[in-house]
Amino acid sequence: MTLAGRHIGTPAGAHPLARYRSEFPIFRDGIYLNTCSLGALGERTRRRVAEFLDVWQRRGASAWYDVWWGALGELRARYARVVNAGPAEIALAPSISVALSAVAEALDYARRPRVVVTSLDFPTVAYQWLAKQPRGVELVVVESPDGVSVPVEAIARAVDERTALVATSHVYFTSGAIQDIAAVAEAAHRRGALLLVDAYQSVGQLPVDVKAAGVDFLTAGGLKWLLGGPGIVFLYAREQLTRSLAPQIAGWFGHRNQFAFDPRVLELHHDARRFELGTPSLAAVYAQLGGLDYIEEIGVPAIRRVTAELTEDLIGRAREHGFRPKVAARAQERSAIVMLPAADPAAGVRHLAAAGIVADARPGHVRLSPFFYNVQDDHVAALEQLATHGDH
Q: b/e for 216-228, b at 16 or more Cβ within 10 A?
């Protein structure tokens, strides 16, 4: 099959992980360069969702006790392995917003009313605490000097003895730059503040070790680089914190004795499950189990090696076409997100779509994001189409 005159299968001489490309049907009809918005659907993921539907059809609610409950535990354990946490440090949630809410409603703002974020973080992070301004919470936004990253020193200067939390990104969605979260953790802890990391754009494409980084909370999920689709995320909560923090929003999955059905007593789990709320979406749980099959089989370090090479190839080819990618200055600080400045990004994305290439737009930029199932030919086709569009 061809696209823009080029073969879109697995070409000779492709990187070793390109052998997985055939398991992602979207490449049969086009080119996909938008994993940072939504991971491509793999055949293993589809099979795991079909497995859930088959059990639902055959067993109905009786499957909860000997099948589905086990699937929740399996997912917590597998999420934990991806970030080097313990299963008891993982809570499940339907979205990052819900996970953030559970943490935000567990903090005491009486003596520490300040929360520090950056101007490059996904706005969900800031919105969580802007909504609490009527309760006296003060949001401090640390500006980026270049629109690419934020110096750790600038974050450190914003943290004081009145700061409850620093909440920021591991990878900035606005530029793909990787933040040194270990350094941010040190800066926060030096003043007695906690650190929450939004790792939606990193877990799955970059190695993440919550213990080595020293973070207090970290959240990520299936939508993007973990290939599980929407509707399932996890919250890592450092074990030493869980018993000292009790969220002021609650649901029956956070209750230690949830099947007692006692409306008079709320006894929270002793582990991270105290941050859980309602019944998880089992279809999303099974989709994520399928996505993790790829991540675990390949290994995140191998994924990082391949995607880093693809990213540098994309950046180099873009510059040859006259584009000026907005990326971090050093290769080791770049993730697999490449921002190409454009006068009309939406029009550029539509032009790509007409040629069978899926990308995304963000203010002022066309955003491309290669993953292990991409090959260099994908970059060639996309950049040729953007060059003919002339919007750079």
A: bbbbbbbbbbbbb
